[in-house]
């Protein structure tokens, strides 16, 4: 079971609410969601169950399909309520089919370098889970990290090799306390991965978090299934307490156990963590994308397209995207969230949105915007189509630059190829479709008194949007 509800704001400006870090390739050519799902593929593993934000449902489905992950079940959260309600939904759904099935719960955005060691630790955790325990994975600390929770390791359990009791959980400590934990060698980082049977999870949620389980049960009873998704009942799910599984169950249960593991784990929760997890040059620098450095050391520099150069910097993070640039000391990496909060308060859309906006059919991105006009680039995946729609305040002109388009304009249907165009007057009913085998790319010029995305009246939609 994969939790994919996070927004990853500490990796701004790359990770934003509309397209968070689990959908980005951070440590390989695959996205973090694909990396995570691929760890649980093959003999002995059932198809994954993913819990995600409703707005990300098609991103999740498309990325799993691209990674050859078949038959995944995707549960849609009507609102983010932290991890306990999400886990409760998956556990209840699985318990109804097979209560003794073992669930491996993990976040969609963590990096793990040593897959064989992970699977060895998982084997021990599964054995303990079948004995009725809820097992977490404790990672051996390498630095006095203040951004992670810790687990104090208790005595070894009899009958299950390599598994210990949990003495206690410790939330993100001060710098001095984290240094003491590192020196004492009795504390491990809390990875946020858990292994337990569906029946055990449901029973402990019912015992320690009855309000969570009752709300989620009502939400599942009201769930709808469409286009392969399980859409949880909104009213009941929103009534569930917003609480993590750590607070709801793990800090209260007598069944908590931990498997110490050294698997090269990182939650990639900051740009400093990205620097730690990346290959470095002789000067300790990390460069990703079109980057040039002179007389710099210990820096993390990433560009998503624009040439980015630095001179004479030390221990600095520089991240460049199409619409934002972040520069800060690596030691201040945890404070990116303060900047994002300031941007939100100022109403800056860059806090939550990228220039490229993803839709079920593909994506679009703004190129130029003026007083009464806007230019966008639109890309439609093969076989996909936009909703049948109209606008009250704008007209549009479409120019095909790659691929083939079928355009419905009122009662007419037009086939357009490269270098051909069509005008859509204000108020006309229209639809765009890609009938071809390659992506369709076109330039859209909008003109009118109001150009907001909410000036769309959907008459018919393949994806169930209103």
UniProtKB/TrEMBL annotation:
Gene Ontology MF terms: GTP binding; isomerase activity; mannose-1-phosphate guanylyltransferase (GTP) activity
A matching Pfam family: MannoseP_isomer
E.C. number(s) listed in UniProt: 2.7.7.13
Domain Mannose-6-phosphate isomerase type II C-terminal: 347-461
CDD domains xref list: cupin_PMI_typeII_C (cd02213), GDP-M1P_Guanylyltransferase (cd02509)
Annotated keywords: GTP-binding, Isomerase, Nucleotide-binding, Nucleotidyltransferase, Transferase
Any one GO biological process: GDP-mannose biosynthetic process
Domain MannoseP isomerase/GMP-like beta-helix: residue ranges: 293-343
Keyword Nucleotidyltransferase appears in the UniProt entry: yes
Matching SUPFAM superfamilies: Nucleotide-diphospho-sugar transferases, RmlC-like cupins
Catalytic reaction(s) noted: alpha-D-mannose 1-phosphate + GTP + H(+) = GDP-alpha-D-mannose + diphosphate
Domain Nucleotidyl transferase intervals: 1-281
Family: Belongs to the mannose-6-phosphate isomerase type 2 family.
Name this protein carries in UniProt: mannose-1-phosphate guanylyltransferase
Species of origin: Roseicella frigidaeris
């Amino acid at each position: 079971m994969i939790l994919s509800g996070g927004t990853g704001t500490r990796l701004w400006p790359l990770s934003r609410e509309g397209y968070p870090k689990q959908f980005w390739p951070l440590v390989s050519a695959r996205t973090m969601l694909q990396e995570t799902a691929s760890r649980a593929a093959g003999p002995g593993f059932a198809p994954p169950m993913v819990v995600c934000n409703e707005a990300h449902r098609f991103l999740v489905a498309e990325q799993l399909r691209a990674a050859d992950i078949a038959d995944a079940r995707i549960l849609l959260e009507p609102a983010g309520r932290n991890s306990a309600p999400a886990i409760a939904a998956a556990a209840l759904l699985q318990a109804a089919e097979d209560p003794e099935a073992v669930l491996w719960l993990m976040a969609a955005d963590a990096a793990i370098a040593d897959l064989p060691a992970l699977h060895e630790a998982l084997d021990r955790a599964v054995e303990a889970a079948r004995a009725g325990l809820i097992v977490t994975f404790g990672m051996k600390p390498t630095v006095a990290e203040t951004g992670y929770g810790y687990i104090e390791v208790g005595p070894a359990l009899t009958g299950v090799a390599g598994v210990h009791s949990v003495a206690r959980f410790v939330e993100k400590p001060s710098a001095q306390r984290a240094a003491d934990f590192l020196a004492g060698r009795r504390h491990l980082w809390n990875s946020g991965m858990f292994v337990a049977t569906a029946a055990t999870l449901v029973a402990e949620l019912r015992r320690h978090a009855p309000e969570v389980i009752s709300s989620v049960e009502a939400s599942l009873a009201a769930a709808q299934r469409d286009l392969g998704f399980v859409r949880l009942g909104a009213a009941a799910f929103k009534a569930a307490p917003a609480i993590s599984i750590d607070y709801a169950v793990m800090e209260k249960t007598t069944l908590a156990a931990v498997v110490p593991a050294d698997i090269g784990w990182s939650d990639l929760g900051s740009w400093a963590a990205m620097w730690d997890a990346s290959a470095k040059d002789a000067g300790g620098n990390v460069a990703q994308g079109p980057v040039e450095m002179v007389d710099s050391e210990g820096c993390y520099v990433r560009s998503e397209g624009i040439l980015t150069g630095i001179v004479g910097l030390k221990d600095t993070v520089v991240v460049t995207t199409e619409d934002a640039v972040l520069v800060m000391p690596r030691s201040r990496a945890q404070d990116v969230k303060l900047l994002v909060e300031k941007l939100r308060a100022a109403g800056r859309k860059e806090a939550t949105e990228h220039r490229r906006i993803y839709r079920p059919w593909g994506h679009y991105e703004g190129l130029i915007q003026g007083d009464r006009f806007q230019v966008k680039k639109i890309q439609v995946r093969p076989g996909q189509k936009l909703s049948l729609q109209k606008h009250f305040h704008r007209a549009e002109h479409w120019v095909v630059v790659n691929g083939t388009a079928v355009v419905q304009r009122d009662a007419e249907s037009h086939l357009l190829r490269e270098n051909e165009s069509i005008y859509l007057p204000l108020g006309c009913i229209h639809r765009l479709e890609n009938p071809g085998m390659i992506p369709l790319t076109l330039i859209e010029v909008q003109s009118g008194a109001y150009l907001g995305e909410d000036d769309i009246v959907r008459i018919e939609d393949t994806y169930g949007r209103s």
